[in-house]
Amino acid sequence: MVSRNTLTTAGGAVLMLAALAACAPADDGTAASPTASASSDSCPKGALQTKAAGKLTIGTDNPAYEPWFSDNKPSNGKGFESAVAYQVAERLGYSAANVTWVSVTFNNAIAPGPKSFDFDINEFSITDDRKKAVDFSSPYYLVRQTVITTKGSKIASAKSIADLQSAKLGAQVGTTSYQAITDVIKPSAKPSVFNNNDDAKAALVNGTVDGIVVDLPTAFYMTGAELKDGVIVGQLPQVGVPEQFGVVLDKDSPLTGCVSGAVDELRQDGTLAVLEKTWLAQTGGAPELQ
Length: 290
What we know:
The chain is α/β, with parallel strands linked by helices. It is built from eight helices and twelve strands. Strand 7, helix 4 and strand 8 form a beta-alpha-beta unit. Helix 2 (80-92) packs across helix 7 (256-268).
């Protein structure tokens, strides 16, 4: 469900966030690596080497799931990744009217070979193996760890980390999720350790634990498709080395530096933080626990 106070269209997102950017503090000089940014001369606004002159073609999967998109309509500007895509387009000099969306399966997007898009946005984790076949922009999202449970659980209405400290929690062994329990929540009871998330989920269902910790994309999937009466309790502060999502481009694309530069601008002026809070924490139903 979309709140009346959230960004409801691509145009609305541009207007609201343009105002935010105007009020943002100046760049502190901590820009991304030289390979991630590009000069205005090499990235002429609205005149990049795109698939179609004057247009920006963006790919994503079909169906496109919430809260990353909304109503399976990437072009409506709603959802975190749709909003990010339109903000990247705007920074590159392409208005919403000059953005075209194409459907591309996840696996095809990261497979070797020519692409039908200028860039693709679809929860792609940046990995060294994938970099052999495609380019990635600098990261637009650092994956957060998230506590989930089921309706009726003692922690279903928890509002803070302190509310979780008396709970029996668990996570997959050797993961950042487990580290989030021990280093951030610090429960009074020793956390349960599982071989995989399926075992953790089974323990939650049978009541062995009050809640489990998984990454946010997994939390959305488990509570939406796998758990009866699944509930997202909330996101935890960042811990460890987070998984990173990046925009995918063709290998050695002439646009990679330009797209990375746009993403870096969005990070530095606070736009990405606004979009994350709007579409993941508020509209998406994954509040931030403190």
